[in-house]
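Please, structure for the following, as tokens.
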Amino acid sequence: YEPALKPEVVARLHSRLRPGDVLLIRAEKKVTSAILPGFWAHAALFIDGAAGLESFGIAVQPMVAKHSSYVLKQDAGQGCVIEAISPRVQVNSLEAALCADHVVVLRPRLGTDELRAGVAEAFQHLDKPYDFEFDFNVSTRIVCTELIYRCFHKRGLIEFSLIKRLGRFTLSADDIIHQWLDSLISQ
């Protein structure tokens, strides 16, 4: 299986990405694309590499600094993402995260301080176990869309509505994009 996003596409995308950009991703051959509701099956938060975090002004924050070696280790030259994939929330290279067929980038409309706080929040969730129960009421385990929810919900004008599915309140990647687009229309 060879994903549609070739290395040159990832490199072009990287040159346009900024820390805090939300990536919604779909890989046609992954099981999650078949079992999760909607088109978009995964969400990740672009954080850039160590130099990008420095110029973004958050590299010295204690939780970010604590994980700086993790970022350096994972960065393959195009920056990194924080994502919740089994078995835990982790830092991965952009190239690894975009081993996929489709990607859309959502850029939060936030002031610099709010955006920094959202990205720094993601570092607080590193190493939490993946939540196979998809229960947003529990913050000790995280799924990919919950990471985005916890980083940006109620920051600036961003507000996500959780949707009850199978008895639990959740947020799918499709919910994120639909609510994001709806918020742009209403602004």
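The radius of gyration is 15 Å. The CA atoms of residues 163 and 175 lie 8 Å apart.
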